[in-house]
């Protein structure tokens, strides 16, 4: 396994729309293993393939405190969503910045596992946020897109400052 490089905003490749996965082979399994390793190494709760510059519909997540409940969703589609929640989100492509985003409280998602079997996942609360956030990445969308231009500008300026300070 190996960790993959994570693209950071405003890298234009984060705007790429991912293509469906059609081949479920050893290469895909290796890629998913690398995504888990990358997510855990970066202390993230979710990671979309888009963020490691692979433009296929694959996301991984683990919202557990123990970091022992890995989930992979391939070709995820939202079947149902309802309710509303506001949650403070962060993103591995936006180091050090966090912002409140409003999303559905509950989602029902159909996806495939690494072997291509269909799975249906129902999630609520933080896991539902995570799945919606990562699915956005696969569509070339990022969480700051939901913010007002003013708020977004402030956060991105802060991120740029931190980047310069740590360079
Ligand atoms: Ni993200």
UniProtKB/TrEMBL annotation:
InterPro entries: Peptide_deformylase, Peptide_deformylase_sf. Coiled coil: none annotated. It is an enzyme of class 3 (hydrolase). Keywords: Hydrolase, Iron, Metal-binding, Protein biosynthesis. One of its GO terms (molecular function) is peptide deformylase activity. The active site is at residue 134. The keyword Hydrolase applies. Binds 1 Fe(2+) ion. Removes the formyl group from the N-terminal Met of newly synthesized proteins. Requires at least a dipeptide for an efficient rate of reaction. N-terminal L-methionine is a prerequisite for activity but the enzyme has broad specificity at other positions. Belongs to the polypeptide deformylase family. NCBIfam families: pept_deformyl (TIGR00079), PRK00150.1-3 (NF001159). HAMAP family: Pep_deformylase (MF_00163). This is Peptide deformylase. It comes from Luteibacter jiangsuensis. The gene is def.
